[in-house]
Fold each of these.
Amino acid sequence: MLVFEVLWQYILLFVMAATPWLEILIVIPIGIALGLPPIPVAIVSFIGNFLPIVLIVYLFNWVQQTNWYVRRKKKKEIKKQEQSDDANNDKKATKKERASAIFHKYGLPGLAILGPIVTGIHLAAIIALSLKANKSKTTIWMGLSLILWTIVITVGSFYSIDWLTGLF
């Protein structure tokens, strides 16, 4: 029964890490707080967070070619043209323009490293790809960023939880 419980906890960590907006920033501390060993928690969380990135990167072009996406894009263009007549809209930057400015200022490495804390790594990958970043470079930079964040969060979580339990 104990083996099943531990396996179930790792499966839940994997699914939570793969879920956008939960990310490793939340999942690793939860796993360590549950008393699971930090290295397996880090590995499972990394894999759970990285696999959706690979799917996003390599399915992005296919999604852009679907009828649903083409219709959605046309509707947005029509709406944008209708709103361009409004004087207030000229002053406001769209989300894509702001993301584009960040991408052009810091590049793919900056977006990848800041992604987990600013937008979430999944959304950072989508932003990079929509701004015409190279697929393999996007995958590599997002992976390197996740490795870095996984190490930092695992070490920080392990020692902070150890320190907190030492207080009580």
Note: Residues 87-92 have pLDDT under 50 and may be disordered.
Amino acid sequence: MSSSKKLTRDHAQIDRIIRSSQVVRLGLAIADEPYIVPLAFGYDGGALYFHTAREGRKLDFLARNPRVCFEFETNVHLLRDDSNPCRWSFAYESVIGYGRADELVEATAKAHGMGEVIRHYAGADRPFPLEGLTEVRLWRVTIDALTAKRSPISQA
């Protein structure tokens, strides 16, 4: 399947891929130094949310350049060709996007962001101790662009 046939901008498919992913990989850069980090995340259909420690390398990058890219993947399967390993491929679904990360500092916004992270993994709203929000930093990535690629097993 050609790369262009795998591409979609259909928001329903993109949402499904993001919501079925376990990890987001966040790409950061300062000048000519890239940095990528896997993170737990939340998603409300328009923005991504993640939390960080109070200090660390990601925060140094975000302070100097809030522009980010991110990647999700799900349903990844190696497709083997027993006669020729050069024909091996993958079935997969992935989303790549771009946006801007901003720290959430107001208590209500932080609670919303953490609620989205918890909802993603718990599958429902779960109560959490609000005083725990003082121990972490919460971030929202305002999404500027999203594209997805799908290479299902049946068509790969």
Note: The chain has one domain: 3-151.
